[in-house]
Amino acid sequence: MKRGTADVAGGTGAPLIAGVGASRGVPVGEVLDLITATRAAAGQADRPVAALATVATKAAEPGLTGAAHRLGVPLLSFPAAALAAVRVPDPSPAAAAAVGTPSVAEAAALLAAGPGAELVAGKRKSAPPGRPARATCALAAPAVTENGALTAGREGAAAAPITGADIVMTSLAPPRRGPGRRTGVIGDEAPDGETTGTKENQ
């Protein structure tokens, strides 16, 4: 992990999942700065980030894979149909038209964090100087079971950072328990056969 990113991936307390949406060509630094700003604005600067999550058509976007690599956490991806089924407080008709789901950042964060997860920070746009935003971010916290265990890790999100993992491709259906859940790494064909999109995803 490079100097300057420990404040994003490190910290104390239960881990967070950062859902991220991105336009084509978003810089790594813009994604990292947005995650840091989102955590700070939500009063969650001391909580670690366990994973990034996005829509499948953005799973190979260099700005997202690079950010996950810099943080030393996996980038999880979900098909648009799975994200569209997640209820969120701030759906976007523009995102629905562009990528097939009215929410990427919020829905991906919630889905990756597992059943019972809650948003701790709603969708926030990046604020690069002199040009339009190319990224969105939302934060979700995994639910805690009666015995104190986190749901993340059982439903598609890692309970702790996975060193060297850039992308984890999930199955076509929303994550589920048991051996039937399929995972793959970067370079694998997406389960739904989708290719990386070029439309903006806010």
Observed structural traits:
single chain, 202 residues, alpha/beta, seven-stranded mixed sheet, 24% helix, 18% strand, disordered N terminus, disordered C terminus
3D structure, described in words:
The protein has about 200 residues and is of the alpha/beta class. It contains six helices and seven strands; from the N terminus they run αβαβαβαααββββ. The protein has helices spanning about 5-10, 30-40, 60-70, 80-85, 95-100, 105-115; strands at about 15-20, 50-55, 75-80, 120-125, 135-140, 170, 185. A seven-stranded mixed sheet has the order 4-5-1-2-3-6-7. The chain is globular. The two termini are about 25 Å apart. The relative contact order is 0.23. The model is unreliable at about 1-5 and about 145-200 (pLDDT under 50).
Q: Would you summarize the structure shown here?
A:
The chain is α/β, with parallel strands linked by helices.
